[in-house]
Design brief:
259 residues; mainly alpha; 11 helices; 82% helix; elongated
Length: 259
Amino acid sequence: MTDNQNRGRDLFVEPYDQCTLSLFSHVISGIVGYAAGFAVLWLFYHQTVFSLFAALAFVPAAIVMRIGASKKKRMTNLLRQFQNFLDSLVVSLQSGRTELGSIESAAEDLALMYSEKADIVKEARLIVQKFNNRQKIGEALADFAERCGLEDIKVFAEVYSAIEGKGEKTREIVARTQKILADKIEIEAEIKTIISGAANELNIIVVIPVIMVAIMGFMGGELMAGLFTTAGGHIVATISIIVFIGAYLLGKKMSNIDV
């Protein structure tokens, strides 16, 4: 079987709105969520049996958070890969290659930079395949943009569709668009770096109350006994956990800014 035939079999790109994590990753996420839930509940209630059962509620939450983080990471990687795709595409176009030849060259460059399994490599080869099946490059790019949902790719697809097949103007406009998008992506990356710093601070702040409760629980003596042995103490602990979770979710929402 030739290399081209092998590549043709691997052109399927997993839907960007679906989770690509393995069952093992889900299991690990569930175990981590359960362990964290049990630890927090036991620290607040000092009721082992209750904590063992109530911690099960943390399992689906941990899995959902892991899936969300995985999708976000995939989109971040795809955007960076797309930026490299544009860089390679512009260089090839300016060297005199055809539009299709430039995309093929970009696919080869990206396969060396990442791997044949990288999303952008599969997408680039899929564009070439669709062109060979009599579909315009602009239409293939538009389909790519619609499936991934990234605004920068959508903008490039719209620009390319408008100027496709216009010779030297195509090269000039693609190069200009690539420069604008590269600057935009770089600014977005800087903003996301600042936001991620705030998110890390939030994670640290969230851990502090748990540590304080743990210290007071083990060193507080009779001061904390009422919290762990009376109905009123359990109500206070429950309210504290609700406020604790609410504050964390609010902080995540405030730090999750789209740029």
